[in-house]
Automatic annotation (TrEMBL):
It catalyses: gamma-L-glutamyl-L-cysteine + hercynine + O2 = gamma-L-glutamyl-hercynylcysteine S-oxide + H2O. Gamma-L-glutamyl-L-cysteine binds at R91, K92, D93, R94, D420, R424. GO terms for molecular function: gamma-glutamyl hercynylcysteine sulfoxide synthase activity; iron ion binding. It comes from Micromonospora craterilacus. Residues 176-435 form the Sulfatase-modifying factor enzyme-like domain. Catalyzes the oxidative sulfurization of hercynine (N-alpha,N-alpha,N-alpha-trimethyl-L-histidine) into hercynyl-gamma-L-glutamyl-L-cysteine sulfoxide, a step in the biosynthesis pathway of ergothioneine. Pathway: Amino-acid biosynthesis; ergothioneine biosynthesis. This is Hercynine oxygenase. It is an enzyme of class 1 (oxidoreductase). Coiled coil: none annotated. The gene is egtB. Keywords: Iron, Metal-binding, Monooxygenase, Oxidoreductase.
Length: 444
């Protein structure tokens, strides 16, 4: 590669990073400027931080990784590092901390961002792992977008009038079959090629799977209402032992934010009540609820590998794509992402986003619970720090895949892995089911 070509490539990467930083910060501003300062500093649920904590935290992480580590510059505010350390400060305790007030938090973010733009103007994207292909900048973009989705979940939990606006998602544009057979054989799981992929997505490795059948769409509200109507919440046959224990202790009887409405159900979405629409994917259910529904339906949750093969494997070429539809970045025709809409789209709304096998809405709409606990892949190496992924490995966390309507395209791809406690349902979580292929199906 000539020096001129190298310079052009570096300028292109700088431009892309600057655009992503700006686009992400604009979303952060929309989420934090939609409410007054009283709402910013209030804790709307013990499960969540005050919005003002998330606001300053994203700035602090940007300072730590870009201004100090990559740039080697003097700290902006070393005195607040402990306040915004997510491991040192449990969410329930954050309201009592001497947090930066909203005006000071916004000024801090602006100062840090100015220094990051100065750094970006002159940085050499050399072979150092943190700066190669702009990795550290991509990591910060993804981190802020993840907190934006967390802040969106906080908005869903806050009381009071609606403050967020968005158009409804598109109507169905295709009929979707009930199930899809995924034939037996190997596929490549994970990635070595995506420059902004995080450590838990690596390395790429070969996985051999028997034939299985997976739902062509996420489980809908209508299907889930049948489970409720059939007494699914009251019958321990469908629940695991820890699931049944949690169902009783938490008094679960429907998805979070649902309430009875005459002979049906209503669903509170960002301060507005609407009738539950049967063809939308069910959202705000925990892993235990998803597992119980699957058992009631005579199925199971897919493993993480089964989910990823259905989402990425191309039977015509045998390769794994970046997204179900190919390697191109998501657009508004592919998936319900990026807070473009404020609830899941009905099944069949995104035919352009289907996988080669005909599996729909694998990306966007709802995070999908899988049957797999969160662990590292064979050959996993923590980078750039253990606390991003490795400290969460084990049986305490279940993997979720696919992203939700609140997930940004920068923090969502066919290899992206999310994880949470199996009791969590304030997140935008749903699921689809799978089952083993019958002998007559696996030999088609």
């Amino acid at each position: 590669m000539t020096d001129t070509t190298t310079d052009r490539s570096a300028e292109g990467l700088r431009g892309r990073i600057a655009a992503e930083l700006e686009r992400t910060r604009a979303r952060t501003a929309r989420l934090t400027e939609a409410v007054d300062d009283g709402d910013l500093v209030r804790q709307h649920s013990p499960l969540m931080s005050p919005l003002v904590w998330d606001l300053a935290h994203v700035g602090n992480q940007e300072e730590l990784w870009l201004v100090r580590d990559v740039g080697g510059r003097e700290p902006v505010r070393r005195d607040i590092d402990d306040l915004y350390d997510a491991f040192k400060q449990p969410r329930k305790d954050r309201p009592s901390l001497p947090l930066l007030p909203p005006t000071e938090a916004r000024a801090y973010l602006a100062t840090v961002r100015d220094k990051v733009y100065d750094l970006l103007d002159g940085i050499a994207f050399d072979s150092r792992p943190l700066v190669a292909d702009g990795f550290a900048f991509g990591m910060i973009v993804q981190h802020e977008q993840q907190h934006d989705e967390t802040m969106l979940a906080t908005h869903q939990l806050r009381s009071g009038p609606a403050v967020l606006q968005a158009p409804p998602p598109p109507e169905p544009a295709a009929r979707v079959t009930a199930e899809v057979l995924v034939p037996a054989g190997p596929f490549t799981m994970g990635t070595d090629a995506d420059p902004w992929a995080l450590d838990n997505e690596r390395p790429a490795h070969r996985v051999e799977l028997p034939a299985y059948v997976i739902d062509a769409a996420p489980v809908t509200n209508g299907a889930y209402r049948e489970f409720i109507a059939d007494g699914g919440y009251d019958d321990p046959r469908w629940w695991s032992a820890p699931g049944w224990r949690h169902r009783q202790e938490a008094g679960l009887n429907a998805p979070m934010h649902w309430r009875r409405d005459g002979d049906g159900w209503a669903y509170r979405r960002f301060g507005r009540w609407d009738r539950v629409r049967d063809d939308e994917p069910v959202v705000h259910v925990c892993f235990h609820e998803a597992q119980a529904y699957a058992s009631w339906a005579g199925k199971r949750l897919p493993t993480e590998a089964e989910w990823e093969k259905a989402a990425r494997w191309d039977p015509a070429t045998g390769r794994s794509r970046r997204y179900p539809w190919g390697d191109d970045e998501p657009t508004s025709t592919h998936a319900n992402l990026g807070q473009r809409h404020l609830w899941p789209a009905p099944v069949g709304a995104y035919p352009a986003g289907a996988s080669p096998l005909g599996v729909h809405q694998l990306v966007g709409d709802v995070w999908e619970w899988t049957a797999t606990p969160f662990r590292g892949y064979p050959g996993f190496a923590a980078f750039p720090y253990r606390e991003y992924s490795e400290v969460f490995f084990g049986d305490d966390y279940q993997v979720l895949r696919g992203g939700s309507f609140g997930t940004d395209r920068a923090a969502c791809r066919g290899t992206f892995r999310n994880w949470d406690y199996p009791i969590r349902r304030q997140i935008f979580s749903g699921f689809r089911c799978a089952r083993d292929a019958r002998p007559e199906e696996s030999h088609r």
